[in-house]
Design goal:
The complex is a heterodimer. By secondary structure, chain A is mainly α. Chain A contains 4 helices and no strands. Chain A has a single domain, classed as Fumarate reductase/succinate dehydrogenase, transmembrane subunit (3 helical TM bundles of succinate and fumarate reductases, Up-down Bundle), CATH 1.20.1300. In chain A, helix 3 packs antiparallel against helix 4. Chain B is mostly helical. Chain B has a domain of about 80 residues: Fumarate reductase/succinate dehydrogenase, transmembrane subunit (3 helical TM bundles of succinate and fumarate reductases). A two-stranded antiparallel ribbon of chain B has the order 1-2. In chain B, strand 1 and strand 2 form a beta hairpin. Classes of the chains: A mainly alpha, B mainly alpha. Chains A and B meet through helix 1, helix 2, helix 3 and helix 4 of A and helix 1, helix 2, helix 3 and helix 4 of B.
Chain lengths: ~110, ~140
């Protein structure tokens, strides 16, 4: 039996990491930027100071990048299951490629290189 | 014989399914919402990326913060929050399947593994809120 080598395990690690990190922090972050800020319970100045701190920038960059991989891995399969069979060969390239490019861009932004 | 044998390239068998199969059962719908919701979470990540980008430009950052107080932004955030919670609950429910922990010979029960994840979630969320909430 001939087996086709799969890149699946490579993508599964950042996917699973992103799924777990999103599960742990995204509800609180969305609550902060989407509801507590408009209600005046969080000040814009606090957020501005925080996103200027190197440790916060690195943490957010990791979160953003892993969120991209989380979405890439799920959408790759979900879009086929929604009937986009014609796109099946290119979806891994589109999804993972997008996540790789998006993550690289995010890191450059986080380190203020662009 | 006129069998189209000149086309020998194998084609994958695709079972005919209505495009709306995922509307047929609540469990299918929940599955599809979780999968597509990851796209919504990625869209929210773009807002975080924008905040990183504008940190060095105070007037632009203030504009972004002002935009977040608009009703359309609040509605979008409520939608994103629903998808984020769906991801949180499904992830913590699934955690015991991925994580088989043993103490000696005995396996730590699933509800404890799930429970530990929920506890970590609450602690992290409270920590994040405490970090940013206005103190009066």
């Amino acid at each position: 039996m001939r087996r086709t080598r799969s890149s699946e395990p490579l993508w599964w690690i950042p996917f699973a990491g992103g799924m777990m990190l999103d599960a742990l922090v995204l509800p609180a972050l969305i609550l902060i930027t989407g509801i507590l800020l408009p209600l005046g319970l969080v000040s814009p100045e606090t957020l501005h100071v925080l996103v200027g701190l190197p440790v916060v920038r690195v943490a957010l960059a990791v979160l953003i990048a892993l969120t991209f991989f989380h979405a890439a891995h799920r959408l790759r399969y979900a879009l086929v299951e929604l009937g986009l069979h014609a796109l099946k060969p290119v979806l891994p390239w589109l999804c993972y490629g997008g996540a790789v490019v998006g993550s690289a861009y995010t890191l450059l932004v986080a380190f203020r290189l662009i | 014989m006129t069998i189209a044998s000149h086309k020998t390239k194998r084609r994958e068998y695709v079972r005919a399914m209505p495009t709306t199969w995922w509307l047929q059962r609540p469990s299918y719908l929940r599955f599809m919402l979780r999968e597509l919701g990851s796209g919504v979470l990625a869209a929210y990540a773009l807002l975080l990326l924008r905040m990183l980008q504008l940190a060095g430009d105070p007037p632009a950052f203030t504009q972004l913060m002002l935009a977040l107080t608009r009703p359309v932004s609040i509605v979008l955030h409520v939608v994103a929050l629903a998808f984020a919670l769906l991801n949180s609950f499904t992830t913590f429910q699934l955690a015991p399947r991925a994580l088989k922990l043993h103490r000696g010979e005995e396996q730590i029960p699933d509800h404890l593994v799930s429970g530990a994840h929920y506890l970590a979630w609450v602690v992290i969320s409270v920590g994040l809120l405490a970090l940013v909430l206005v103190r009066r």
